[in-house]
Recover the amino acids of this structure.
């Protein structure tokens, strides 16, 4: 292959399957100049993930993407086994974007025999999604702390769809004195407005149409606020009714302070509206900033 | 002051009072060559601590000692307020030993407003001392994880008096993929055999004499084992009786596997004998390896 030919082909990322190898690589690049950007994912990548990888590529000198469907953040009975996986396609997409390292450990690599350490951000983890998924953020916090130690990034890129996750992890990083900063990137949506999510591919065509009700309900809150309605309970009723009319089931709608995640008594610009609904068996989340 | 004069005087360690300053210093020295040794303490230093500092000085290129009486590892009603403190004397001792950095943050520095993150090593923390101090190791694990992030040491030096603490923290480090290794150093004892502890200075002369019962009981187990007795329950009876006869109160005596801390059915060489007793209001711990 000529050098010219090679230069137009993207270089395949280095695929790292063991914790020890990734620890060794990050020890080495931490001694070199430059900023390491990190995008933690559970694979099954969509435009939302890719927007994070692109943002990392613009700001950083090297980019690490992890692909790990973390059993620690799924409760028994949740969709761990059904969660979509497609490593070959993920790798193709990451190769196109020029990612340097893909860290894809097995569950046994991350949770070795005798594993027993868990991290909990106590208050923030119990709100919103934490009410219906009480061990979810414990699993997220623990795996992210592990990944921060293993990858040693300067910047970690996360999407605003998982708004609560970002608030919880910022708290984790500040409380435990990790050196990584979280860069928050906007939600990427399908053309019709549905927030991109790996779980969307598990919706059948009829559910896919109904799934729009979540985004619509959040937009109804924004419109109602513009028309002078600022009462969370009344807004929640309108939104819930819309979701029910679309054949969805509301897990929650909340209006919260974006830093503390505490519910507000009256909406104001900057209030975050968050929702979770079930469409069929699939649980979807979305949020927006009230303006 | 002449250079000669200066060379015979120990250089005062750099005293670091804020987390941000220590983070900045460790970021800098992590980019330099050399091994960073770390000795976490709650101050009120005695020969036990100093032996750890000396070991760090021999193996490492720079030594950081932290002095922080961690509120997180004291339960309400325990001796947080009564715990001895003498920063000036500690600093004198550390200056003599040529320590490079003394990290002495305030509780407000370590647990800022809104703090809510806790780390738990679930199984190991509930055994032995964890039975009578159920939140103790949660506090230890959390503060040590913070200190590892802030100080970024290669090696952390800990004394075998806190045997369970070392086992718990090794698990923490392995589970969360920290890069630090724990170096375990032998117990340092007073001339009469009492394990050194900052709490010893809170014993009055009569209690100080009775405090020997803990060490004596552990030695009785060793002697009984040499004479063919390997049954933990029978040994525990003998030991407890000795402590009671000395006017002490037994918290626990256990014979455990040194890695898992699980109780053994029969003693064998390598079994760890651990004990905790109250002498007056003071709780003392000690342990030995059965040989």
């Amino acid at each position: 292959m000529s050098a010219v030919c090679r230069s137009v082909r993207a270089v395949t990322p280095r695929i790292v399957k063991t914790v020890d190898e990734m620890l060794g690589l990050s020890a080495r690049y931490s001694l070199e100049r430059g900023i390491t950007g990190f995008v933690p994912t559970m694979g099954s990548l969509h435009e939302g993930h890719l927007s994070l990888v692109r943002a990392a590529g613009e700001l950083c000198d090297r980019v690490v993407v992890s692909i790990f469907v973390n059993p620690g953040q799924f409760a028994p009975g949740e969709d761990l086994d059904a969660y979509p996986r497609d490593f070959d396609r993920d790798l193709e997409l990451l190769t196109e974007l020029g990612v340097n390292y893909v860290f894809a450990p097995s569950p046994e690599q991350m949770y070795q025999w005798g594993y027993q350490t868990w991290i909990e951000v106590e208050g923030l983890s119990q709100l919103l999604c934490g009410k219906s998924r009480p061990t979810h953020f414990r699993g997220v916090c623990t795996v992210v702390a592990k990944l921060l130690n293993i990858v040693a990034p300067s910047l970690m890129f996360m999407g605003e769809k998982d708004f609560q996750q970002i608030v919880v992890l910022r708290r984790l990083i500040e409380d435990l004195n990790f050196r990584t900063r979280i860069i928050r990137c906007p939600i990427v949506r399908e053309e019709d407005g549905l927030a991109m999510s790996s779980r969307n591919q598990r919706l059948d065509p009829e559910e896919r149409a109904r799934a729009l009700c979540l985004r619509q309900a959040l937009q109804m809150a924004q419109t109602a606020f513009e028309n002078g309605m600022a009462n969370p309970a009344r807004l929640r009723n309108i939104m819930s009714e819309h979701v029910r009319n679309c054949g969805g089931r509301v897990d929650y709608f909340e209006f919260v302070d974006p830093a503390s995640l505490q519910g507000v008594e009256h909406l104001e610009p900057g209030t975050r509206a968050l929702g979770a609904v079930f469409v069929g068996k699939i649980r979807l989340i979305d949020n927006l900033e009230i303006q």
Observations:
- The mean pLDDT of chain B is 95.
- Chain B has two domains: 3-185, 198-289.
- Residues 274 and 287 of chain B are 4 Å apart (CA to CA).
- The interface with chain A takes residues 19, 23, 27, 30-31, 112, 114-124, 141-142, 145-146, 149-150, 171-172, 174-179 of chain B (CB under 8 Å).
